[in-house]
Specification:
55% helix; 17 helices; 6-stranded mixed barrel; alpha+beta; elongated
C-alpha cells in the first residue's frame, strides 16, 4: 500500500481488536460508537422521509381541490373573466384556467344543517383544474338551470343524503318581502359525491354549476379565475409574473400563500425533529471521543516509540484522526444505507408490521391518511450524512491533540 504510514496505522487501529489495542473493551466502545452514528443517521432519514411523505400527501390532496393560482377582483366580480383567462394561458407554465364563484352558505336536509363553502364551477373547464375522485355521479351532471349539487362524501354522510335527494341551500344574503327580511334559499338536487381524501374539504365543500351560483347569489359575473400549472412548485414565481402582466386591478394568490400557516408549521416541525434526532448522533460522537481517549491511553508506548523514530506531533494527530474519521464514515455510510432502504420501503414494511403486531399506526377514524407515506429526498440524505460526518470529525480533535502532547520519556518510564 502506498498510503502514508499515519493512514495505515490509523486504519489498523480501527479494524483490529484486542490483538492490537490490548483492550477488547475499547474495540467494543468503538463498535458502539459506530452503531450509534448509524442508528442516528438512519432514524433521522426515516423520520424526515415520513414527514416529507405526510407533507406531500396532504399537499396533493389539498391541491386536488384547490387551484395552483387564483385570480380575482377586489370588487367580488370579474366581468372580463374570459380575457383574464386568455391572458393567463399565454404564460408557458399555465396549463388551464377556469371561472369560479366562491361563497359561504348553509345546506339543510330535514333537521340537519351545515355550513359549507359553496363553489360554482363550469364542469367543462373544471375537469382541467381539479382532480376530484367522484364516489358517485359525475361533475358533468351539473347543468345550468337544473340546480344540481355535488357534495363531499363526509358532508353527504352528515346530511344523510344520496344522489337523487333534494336539500335546501340558504344564501347569507336576505331579500325584502312584505313579511320583512327573509333569507334567500333554493332547492338543489344531489347529483353526486366526491372524495378528496382531505377531511376539511370532504366535510365542508359543495359544488354547483357556475350559472346557478350566479343566480343564487345574484352575481353578474364569476368571482374570478382558477389556474392550474404544469409545475406547481413554480406557483409563487408564476403568480408574480401574472400580477405584472394581467390587465386591470386584480389580486393574484398562489396555493402556498393560501396555506402559509400550515406549511410554516410543517417546516418548524421538520427543523425541530432534525435537531432532536441529531442529538442521537451527538451522543454517538461523545462515545467516539471516549473510545479514542482510551485508545490513546493504552497506546502511549507505541506513540512514544513513533516519536523517538522521528514522527512529528502532527503525524500522531493524523493517526487518531484517521481512526475516528474512519469510524464516523463507516457509521454514516451504514446509517445512510439502512435509512434509505427502510424509508424507500415504508409503504410495504408498515403493513407487514401492522399485521404481525395486530396494530394500526393510522386509524382511519382519526387520521385522513390510512397508510404511512414516505418521500425520500436526496438533499435531506446529503445534509444528514454531512452533519454526521462533521460531528465525527470534530470528535477526533481532542483525543488526537492529547496523543500529540505525549512525551516519549514520560511514556516509556515504566515500560
Amino acid at each position: 500500500m502506498n498510503l502514508p504510514y499515519e493512514w495505515q496505522i490509523g486504519w489498523r487501529y480501527t479494524r483490529t481488536g484486542k490483538r492490537t489495542t490490548g483492550n477488547g473493551f475499547i474495540s467494543f466502545i468503538s463498535l458502539i460508537s459506530m452503531a450509534g452514528i448509524a442508528l442516528g443517521v438512519s432514524a433521522l432519514i426515516i423520520v424526515l422521509s415520513v414527514m416529507n411523505g405526510f407533507q406531500k400527501e396532504v399537499r396533493d390532496r389539498m391541491l386536488s381541490v384547490l387551484a395552483h393560482i387564483e385570480i380575482f377582483s377586489p370588487t367580488g366580480a370579474l366581468p372580463d373573466w374570459r380575457q383574464t383567462a386568455d391572458e393567463a394561458r399565454r404564460h408557458s407554465e399555465v396549463r388551464a384556467a377556469a371561472p369560479y364563484v366562491e361563497a359561504q352558505a348553509l345546506v339543510a336536509r330535514r333537521s340537519a344543517v351545515s355550513g359549507v363553502a359553496l363553489r360554482g364551477i363550469d364542469p367543462d373547464f373544471e375537469k382541467h383544474i381539479s382532480n376530484l375522485v367522484m364516489k358517485s355521479g359525475r361533475l358533468a351532471r351539473l347543468k345550468a338551470g337544473k340546480f344540481g349539487i355535488v357534495l363531499g362524501t363526509q358532508l353527504a354522510e352528515d346530511l344523510a343524503v344520496a344522489p337523487g335527494d333534494t336539500l335546501t341551500v340558504i344564501a347569507p344574503q336576505s331579500e325584502t318581502t312584505p313579511a320583512g327580511l327573509l333569507p334567500r334559499y333554493k332547492l338543489f338536487k344531489v347529483v353526486g359525491a366526491f372524495e378528496s381524501g382531505h377531511y376539511e374539504f370532504d366535510r365542508s365543500l359543495a359544488l354547483i354549476h357556475l350559472a346557478d351560483a350566479q343566480t343564487l347569489f345574484r352575481l353578474e359575473a364569476p368571482t374570478g379565475v382558477r389556474v392550474r400549472l404544469h409545475d406547481m412548485q413554480r406557483a409563487p414565481e408564476v403568480a408574480r409574473a401574472l400580477a405584472r402582466s394581467l390587465s386591470g386591478q386584480l389580486y393574484v394568490r398562489d396555493w402556498t400563500t393560501q396555506n402559509r400557516t400550515w406549511f410554516a408549521a410543517v417546516q418548524v416541525e421538520k427543523r425541530m425533529m432534525f435537531i432532536i434526532l441529531m442529538l442521537i448522533i451527538a451522543v454517538a460522537a461523545f462515545n467516539l471521543v471516549s473510545s479514542l481517549v482510551m485508545t490513546v491511553t493504552s497506546k502511549q508506548a507505541d506513540i512514544a516509540i513513533l516519536r523517538t523514530l522521528g514522527a512529528q506531533p502532527a503525524s500522531i494527530m493524523k493517526i487518531f484522526i484517521m481512526q475516528g474519521v474512519t469510524i464516523g464514515a463507516l457509521g454514516t455510510a451504514l446509517g445512510i444505507a439502512f435509512g434509505c432502504l427502510i424509508a424507500a420501503n415504508i409503504p410495504v414494511l408498515a403493513p407487514m408490521v401492522e399485521r404481525a403486531l395486530h396494530i394500526q399506526f393510522l386509524p382511519p377514524s382519526i387520521y385522513f391518511i390510512s397508510s404511512l407515506p414516505s418521500d425520500l429526498i436526496a438533499s435531506d440524505v446529503i445534509r444528514i450524512g454531512g452533519f454526521a460526518f462533521l460531528l465525527s470529525a470534530l470528535a477526533t480533535l481532542y483525543p488526537s491533540w492529547r496523543a500529540a502532547r505525549i512525551q516519549p520519556a514520560a511514556a516509556l518510564r515504566y515500560e
